[in-house]
Amino acid sequence: MSDPLPIGATLAGHRIEAPLGGGAMGTVYRARATDGTPVALKVLHPAVLERWDLRRRFEREARALAAVTHRNVIGVRELGEEEGRLFLAMELLEGESLEDRLVRERLDPEEALVLADAVLAGLAYAHAHGILHRDVKPDNVFLARTAEGLVPKLLDFGLAKLDDDAWGPRTQLTTQGMVLGTPTYMAPEQIRSEPVDARADVYAMGVMLFEMLTGTFPFVSDEIPELFRMHLSAPVPSLAESRHDLGASPELEALVARALEKDRDARFADAGVMRRALRALPKPAVWST
Over pLDDT 70: what percentage of the chain? Predict the structure, then answer.
């Protein structure tokens, strides 16, 4: 890991103002671009650049984000490199992650559907442009405070796959047999290390919508092998049995169950199809009893 950039330092014209967080691959800073625009600057650790696969993953995230211009997807401004530091400049967001919100409080059921609709809008746009996220989860959804109100935005396309049909053959970025994703939200085909398409993101959206509505997960285990087994073969519980004070219409129960089908052929084809089904639900679709 490299030394952190000090406050006041510049990287390709971006003046560092404060660290925002980081991890094994890099650090995110609050910075200001040469035109005065505040940005989030994601800087890869120089040591990581020695790993071609990690560098390609970082560049893939930038390429994926640059191809998706949508109010529900974080905006990217620039990918660059200076003095051995590879960086990605993105729009700076104020607010909190959906994960933090869910930890703090249980969502109102109607708000959960509104937030899900917005996330599906961004994901549908990505799918329409041949981009799969592959790690949809509350920690990768940011609830941005804007002048227009709360705007959910999809983050972290670091595991994104550029769909072969839209972008041509892709470079394999993972070790053979390695499973990418977050176990709680992973589709059966991801667990089996099979090729994935938009329906894997639909499955993750199903898990996340279940969590947003009930405050728990459809499958729970402290052991990853058991959690994988449940994703592969355990029946999906209903919303009603997972949260007893929740009233859900049969149509909403069916929508969540379809998103969580083990057989991807039985799921919604992509996020756009799932969003249309969500918007077609008779009102009220959900309520607290």
Answer: 91
